[in-house]
Amino acid sequence: MKPIIILAIWLAVNCSGFAESVLVVKTELTEYGMFTEGTLTPSLLKRFKTCMEPSTEPTPEPRLIQQTDQIPAKLKTIFGISYVIHGAPFHAPFDIRIRLTHPKITNPKTAETSSVVEYTVNTAIGERNYDAFKFDDSWEIALGKWTFQIFQGEQLLMQKTFEIKPET
Questions:
Q1: Cα–Cα distance between 168 and 130 in angstroms, integer?
Q2: This prediction's pTM
Q3: Which of 121, 127, 122 is nearest to 86 (CA)?
Q4: In this structure, are residues 136 and 3 in contact, taking their beta carbons and an 8 Å threshold?
Protein backbone atom coordinates (compact mmCIF):
# COMPACT_ATOMS: atom_id res chain seq x y z
CA MET A 1 0.00 0.00 0.00
CA LYS A 2 2.82 2.47 0.84
CA PRO A 3 4.46 2.30 -2.63
CA ILE A 4 1.12 3.10 -4.27
CA ILE A 5 0.56 6.10 -2.00
CA ILE A 6 4.09 7.37 -2.61
CA LEU A 7 3.67 6.93 -6.37
CA ALA A 8 0.33 8.75 -6.28
CA ILE A 9 1.88 11.64 -4.34
CA TRP A 10 4.87 11.75 -6.70
CA LEU A 11 2.60 11.84 -9.75
CA ALA A 12 0.40 14.53 -8.22
CA VAL A 13 3.39 16.71 -7.35
CA ASN A 14 5.23 16.22 -10.63
CA CYS A 15 2.22 16.50 -12.90
CA SER A 16 1.00 19.67 -11.20
CA GLY A 17 3.83 21.81 -12.56
CA PHE A 18 4.24 23.54 -9.18
CA ALA A 19 7.08 21.51 -7.66
CA GLU A 20 10.62 20.51 -8.45
CA SER A 21 11.14 17.18 -10.14
CA VAL A 22 11.94 15.33 -6.91
CA LEU A 23 9.84 13.79 -4.21
CA VAL A 24 11.32 14.20 -0.73
CA VAL A 25 10.15 11.37 1.52
CA LYS A 26 12.23 12.11 4.63
CA THR A 27 15.35 13.89 5.83
CA GLU A 28 17.66 11.88 8.06
CA LEU A 29 19.99 13.60 10.52
CA THR A 30 23.03 11.32 10.37
CA GLU A 31 25.47 13.21 12.63
CA TYR A 32 25.51 16.38 14.68
CA GLY A 33 27.93 18.01 17.06
CA MET A 34 31.58 19.06 16.80
CA PHE A 35 33.56 18.20 13.65
CA THR A 36 37.22 18.15 12.64
CA GLU A 37 38.83 21.41 11.61
CA GLY A 38 39.31 22.55 8.06
CA THR A 39 37.47 19.82 6.14
CA LEU A 40 33.90 21.07 5.75
CA THR A 41 32.77 21.86 2.23
CA PRO A 42 30.58 23.70 1.60
CA SER A 43 31.59 25.98 4.46
CA LEU A 44 28.84 28.01 6.03
CA LEU A 45 31.45 30.31 7.53
CA LYS A 46 33.04 31.00 4.13
CA ARG A 47 29.64 31.86 2.64
CA PHE A 48 28.78 34.09 5.57
CA LYS A 49 32.03 36.06 5.48
CA THR A 50 32.52 36.36 1.73
CA CYS A 51 29.03 35.80 0.27
CA MET A 52 30.71 33.67 -2.40
CA GLU A 53 29.66 30.32 -3.75
CA PRO A 54 31.11 27.35 -1.87
CA SER A 55 34.20 25.63 -3.16
CA THR A 56 33.46 22.74 -5.49
CA GLU A 57 36.92 21.23 -5.11
CA PRO A 58 36.86 17.84 -3.39
CA THR A 59 38.00 17.76 0.20
CA PRO A 60 38.14 15.00 2.80
CA GLU A 61 34.83 14.22 4.47
CA PRO A 62 34.33 15.87 7.84
CA ARG A 63 34.87 13.66 10.85
CA LEU A 64 32.61 13.90 13.87
CA ILE A 65 34.65 14.55 17.01
CA GLN A 66 31.77 14.49 19.50
CA GLN A 67 28.03 14.03 19.10
CA THR A 68 26.50 16.75 21.23
CA ASP A 69 24.16 19.71 21.07
CA GLN A 70 26.05 21.51 23.88
CA ILE A 71 28.88 23.46 22.21
CA PRO A 72 31.68 25.25 24.10
CA ALA A 73 32.12 28.94 23.29
CA LYS A 74 35.71 28.45 22.13
CA LEU A 75 37.67 29.78 19.16
CA LYS A 76 38.20 27.35 16.25
CA THR A 77 35.27 25.16 17.34
CA ILE A 78 33.33 23.73 14.37
CA PHE A 79 29.79 22.52 15.00
CA GLY A 80 27.05 21.45 12.66
CA ILE A 81 25.06 18.69 11.04
CA SER A 82 25.32 15.88 8.52
CA TYR A 83 22.14 14.66 6.82
CA VAL A 84 20.71 12.72 3.90
CA ILE A 85 17.53 13.65 2.04
CA HIS A 86 15.67 10.51 0.92
CA GLY A 87 13.18 10.41 -1.93
CA ALA A 88 12.83 9.82 -5.66
CA PRO A 89 14.30 9.66 -8.15
CA PHE A 90 17.57 8.58 -6.52
CA HIS A 91 20.48 10.99 -7.26
CA ALA A 92 18.11 13.59 -8.75
CA PRO A 93 19.56 17.10 -8.25
CA PHE A 94 17.52 19.87 -6.60
CA ASP A 95 17.99 23.01 -4.52
CA ILE A 96 17.67 23.32 -0.77
CA ARG A 97 17.81 26.41 1.40
CA ILE A 98 19.94 26.43 4.54
CA ARG A 99 19.13 28.86 7.35
CA LEU A 100 21.20 29.31 10.49
CA THR A 101 19.60 31.49 13.16
CA HIS A 102 21.73 32.62 16.07
CA PRO A 103 22.02 35.33 18.71
CA LYS A 104 22.99 38.74 17.32
CA ILE A 105 26.66 39.07 16.34
CA THR A 106 28.42 42.18 15.03
CA ASN A 107 31.57 42.28 12.92
CA PRO A 108 33.71 44.99 14.54
CA LYS A 109 35.50 45.80 11.25
CA THR A 110 32.36 46.38 9.18
CA ALA A 111 29.78 47.07 11.91
CA GLU A 112 27.54 44.57 10.08
CA THR A 113 25.11 42.84 12.45
CA SER A 114 23.52 39.48 11.82
CA SER A 115 21.24 36.97 13.50
CA VAL A 116 20.41 34.88 10.40
CA VAL A 117 22.56 33.37 7.66
CA GLU A 118 20.67 31.97 4.68
CA TYR A 119 21.76 30.54 1.34
CA THR A 120 20.73 28.04 -1.34
CA VAL A 121 22.77 25.00 -2.42
CA ASN A 122 22.28 22.24 -4.93
CA THR A 123 22.15 18.68 -3.59
CA ALA A 124 20.79 15.33 -4.75
CA ILE A 125 18.42 12.72 -3.39
CA GLY A 126 20.47 10.25 -1.33
CA GLU A 127 23.55 12.51 -1.13
CA ARG A 128 25.22 13.13 2.23
CA ASN A 129 25.25 16.84 3.11
CA TYR A 130 27.18 18.84 5.72
CA ASP A 131 26.49 22.28 7.12
CA ALA A 132 28.56 23.81 9.88
CA PHE A 133 29.81 26.98 11.51
CA LYS A 134 33.31 27.69 12.80
CA PHE A 135 34.20 30.27 15.43
CA ASP A 136 37.18 31.87 13.66
CA ASP A 137 36.96 35.21 15.49
CA SER A 138 35.97 36.03 19.05
CA TRP A 139 33.21 38.40 17.86
CA GLU A 140 31.44 35.42 16.23
CA ILE A 141 30.98 33.63 19.55
CA ALA A 142 27.53 34.32 20.96
CA LEU A 143 26.05 32.31 23.81
CA GLY A 144 22.59 30.88 23.30
CA LYS A 145 20.64 28.89 20.73
CA TRP A 146 21.97 28.35 17.19
CA THR A 147 19.54 26.52 14.88
CA PHE A 148 20.24 24.95 11.49
CA GLN A 149 17.14 24.61 9.30
CA ILE A 150 16.91 22.84 5.93
CA PHE A 151 14.11 23.84 3.51
CA GLN A 152 12.87 22.67 0.13
CA GLY A 153 11.02 25.69 -1.14
CA GLU A 154 8.99 26.83 1.87
CA GLN A 155 8.76 23.35 3.42
CA LEU A 156 10.93 22.80 6.48
CA LEU A 157 12.61 19.41 6.04
CA MET A 158 14.52 19.34 9.34
CA GLN A 159 16.13 21.44 12.01
CA LYS A 160 18.71 20.98 14.74
CA THR A 161 19.37 23.38 17.60
CA PHE A 162 22.67 23.76 19.45
CA GLU A 163 23.28 25.57 22.73
CA ILE A 164 26.51 27.57 22.85
CA LYS A 165 27.70 27.63 26.46
CA PRO A 166 30.65 29.21 28.27
CA GLU A 167 33.79 27.12 28.03
CA THR A 168 34.41 25.13 31.21
A1: 27
A2: 0.77
A3: 127
A4: no
